[in-house]
Amino acid sequence: MSDAAITAHDLRKSYGGTTVLDGIDLTVPRGTIFSLLGPNGAGKTTAVKILSTLIPPDPGSGTLRVGGHDLATDPQAVRAAIGVTGQFSAVDGLITGEENMLLMADLHHLPRREGRRVAAELLERFDLTEAAGKPASTYSGGMKRRLDIAMTLVGDPRIIFLDEPTTGLDPRSRHSMWQIIRALVADGVTVLLTTQYLEEADELADRIAVLNDGKIAAEGTAEELKRLVPGGHVRLRFTDPAAYRGARAALGGVHPDDEALALQIPSGGSQRELHTLLGRLDSLGIEADELTVHTPDLDDVFFALTGDAVIPSPTEENAR
Ligand SMILES: Nc1ncnc2c1ncn2[C@@H]1O[C@H](COP(=O)(O)OP(=O)(O)OP(=O)(O)O)[C@@H](O)[C@H]1O
What we know:
Mean pLDDT: 88
CATH architecture of the largest domain: 3-Layer(aba) Sandwich
Largest sheet: 6 strands, mixed
Bound molecules: adenosine-5'-triphosphate
Main location: membrane
Shape: globular
Number of helices: 12
Low-confidence stretches: 309-320
CATH topology of the largest domain: Rossmann fold
Membrane topology: Peripheral membrane protein
GO molecular function: ATP binding
Keywords: Antibiotic resistance, ATP-binding, Nucleotide-binding, Transport
Distance between the termini: 48 Å
Radius of gyration: 23 Å
Structural class: alpha/beta
CATH superfamily of the largest domain: P-loop containing nucleotide triphosphate hydrolases
Number of domains: 2
Strand order of the largest sheet: 6-7-8-3-9-10
Organism: Streptomyces nigra
Order of helices and strands: EEEHEEHEHHHEHEHEEHEHEEHEHH
Helix content: 25-40%
Number of strands: 14
Strand content: 15-25%
């Protein structure tokens, strides 16, 4: 059997005349975390839905294999090997956490006593024992996500698809979810994770594929991707909107953030480059309120690969 848990060749999907996945290739080695990273609408969920047999690929697609099984000829075997959680949560809010777990145990045909044991063990592992008797609709976002993953694990899948597992979670819940994901992989589970957060892919993934416009714009480890971009950037922040607009107009090739009144300028951060930049601003009589120098990170890779696409960083989003 191949070492890959998931392989996709020339995966294609269009809706009407719109191409969502334009022939993507993926190989996910067993026991690793692979991240599909991309902005809203890049096609991440579509890829997960296809690979987890929820929707069919376009007929022109190449071979797709998950857990050693061909999706086209053996979708049942694929379904038995995988777990899927994420944006399409399986949690039923009207019943309790424990009842949700027992329902999953029933679906997996576990004998009653075994079902109760597995449910109790997983509820404990995901810190849900205390809340187990309450309706899931009363759970916080983080608790619902934990319950969702716990439900997925009832069937002991060896491959798990996590579709944006931390979108909307606060930093503490996000870190707790990251620990859960790391623990899964330490147990030998393969995880295909979609995220729009660079930091999350950087933290968790062994390999990352950047999805843009239905194509894989680049693939590699976080370090390999960071080496793709020549340098880092300088970020200038303003409090005066007029100064911000002046600098934006005067400096070419910047990534503006109109809401934060910030400009991101590609730069190696050398003394000479900073001197030139500040000289430029001085000559225009513009003063920035904050200047920070960033060495290359996944943000730079993303900007370089996807033009002006801006994707949020979880820390920025939640710190406010
Ligand atoms: N059933 C459908 N019919 C028509 N278009 C669809 C359908 N499902 C998805 N799309 C379109 O396909 C594109 C990709 O959607 P998808 O949900 O895969 O993106 P995504 O990368 O997961 O985005 P997000 O981060 O917002 O979840 C979007 O433009 C979306 O509108």
